[in-house]
Amino acid sequence: MVEKLVGFFLSLFSGIQSIPLGKEIIVFIISLMPILELRGGLLAASFLGLDPIRSYIISVVGNIIPVPFILWFITSIIDYMRRSKHFSKIAKWLDKKVEKHKEQIEKFGFWGLVLFVGIPLPGTGAWTGCLIAAVLEMDRKKAFLAAMLGIFFASVIMMILSFGVLKFIIS
C-alpha cells in the first residue's frame, strides 16, 4: 500500500522533479504526510535515485516537524471536528484509530510509544503515535522524546529496506 501511495505522489509531483532540489522537495513533502511519513519519503528517495544520507536527513526532518504540533494541538482540533457537521466523520475515524492502538501504548507507556512509532508497519508511525499520546494525555516532553526515538528506529529500518534490500531486489 505504501508503495502505491508513494508512486501516486511521485507522479503527482513529477513536475517538481525538474526544478533545482525538486526530488529532495518531493521526499520532504512525502515525509511530512500522515500515513507515508519517513517510510514513504525514504522509498520515494530510493525510487528517485537520491543519495541515501541526504535522503535520510530530509526524511527524518520532514517526519519530525509535525510531531510537536500534533502533541500540542491535535486534541483541540479533534474536539472541534467532533462538533463540526463537515468533519465529524473524520473525527470518528481518528477516534477509532486511537481506540484500536491505545492499549499497546498505555500498557508500556514511554517504551510502548517508542516501539509503536519505531516499527514501520501500516497504521503506526509518529502521526498516529503522537495522536494517541495526546489523547492519553501523556507528558508531552516524554512523548516527544519517545516519538524522536521511534523515528530514529523506523528510519534505520527503512534505510536498510529502501536502500539496501529494495535496491538489491530491484537491481
Short description:
This protein is mainly α and 171 residues long. The chain is built from eight helices and no strands.
Structure summary, number of beta strands: 0
Structural class from helices and strands?
Answer: mainly alpha
Mean pLDDT: 89
3D shape: globular
Radius of gyration: 16 Å
Write down the domain tally.
2
Number of helices: 8
Note the gap between the termini: 22 Å
> What does the largest sheet look like?
none
Measured by DSSP, the beta-strand proportion falls in under 5%
- Uncertain residue segments: none
Helix content: over 70%
Helix and strand run? HHHHHHHH
Helices and strands in order:
Layout: H1 2-12, H2 22-32, H3 37-48, H4 52-64, H5 66-83, H6 88-118, H7 126-135, H8 140-170
Helix pairs in contact: 1-3, 2-3, 2-4, 3-4, 3-8, 4-8, 5-6, 5-7, 5-8, 6-7, 6-8, 7-8
